[in-house]
Design goal:
2 domains; Alpha/beta knot; 6 helices; alpha/beta; Trp Operon Repressor, Chain A; 27% helix
Length: 227
């Protein structure tokens, strides 16, 4: 899969995508991440990309023309989707990532300032947000889309990094159960005895119970999705 990210801050994207699992996926050519610097597509001598909103208001918004030109500069694949990060967009989640994993190309426009000219929505497929909070820019959202979608692509995760029972992928629709590793005791905090028992049926039952309890505590809104 190819990701093309339109941003005023390419270094944010480039630095992250050199590291960890995503960096490895890029080096192994499982995915490709291109950044498109929006500034050269700005207008006039100062390469302007934003302006005051018609009708008044606080702050500046992205102009449609620089975004339009930057997008048209990207070579499109047959199966591609265009996203723009926006506080008023559809919330990004695991199902959203699953729906895009078979695309050949995802283009992400990183929002910034106070928003963007609404006419930009004529050239995008989705407006996307990370949640019910506001960020200074869309780069963190774009990186989250890259990361969560890439790890669904065959070969990006190794066998020991499998995602089948992670939170939001867990088959029962709950958060993942608590996990522990060595030492068995630290600072008087002990690993639950059941995990040391070797009794797989009891461990499975304990994990299911703990998964439900953790979801009720941390994400009670997810309980309605329990299968």
């Amino acid at each position: 899969m190819q990701f093309d990210i339109i941003t005023l801050f390419p270094d944010i994207i480039n630095t992250y995508c050199q590291l960890g699992i995503i960096g490895r996926a890029c080096r192994e050519e499982k995915i490709k991440v291109n950044t498109v610097d929006l500034r050269p597509f700005g207008l006039g001598r100062h390469k302007q990309v934003d302006d005051l909103p018609y009708g008044g208001g606080v702050g500046l918004i992205f102009m449609v023309e620089p975004i339009f030109n930057a997008l048209n500069n990207i070579k499109r694949k047959d199966r591609s989707k265009v996203l723009i990060t926006s506080a008023s967009g559809r919330k990004w989640d695991q199902k959203f990532a699953q729906s895009l994993k078979n695309e050949e190309q995802i283009i992400i426009i990183c929002g910034r300032y106070e928003g963007y000219d609404e006419r930009i929505t004529n050239i995008v497929d989705y407006e996307v947000c990370m949640g019910d909070f506001i960020l200074t820019g869309g780069e963190l959202c774009a990186l989250s889309v890259i990361d969560s979608t890439s790890r669904l692509i065959e070969g990006v995760l190794k066998k020991e990094e499998t995602f089948d029972e992670e939170s939001f992928s867990f088959q029962n629709g709950l958060l993942e159960y608590p996990q522990y590793t060595r030492p068995q005791e630290f600072n008087s905090w002990k690993v639950p005895d059941v995990l040391l028992s070797g009794h797989h049926a009891q461990i499975k039952k304990w994990r299911e119970e703990q998964s439900l309890a953790k979801t009720k505590k941390n994400r009670p809104d997810m309980i309605d999705n329990v299968k």
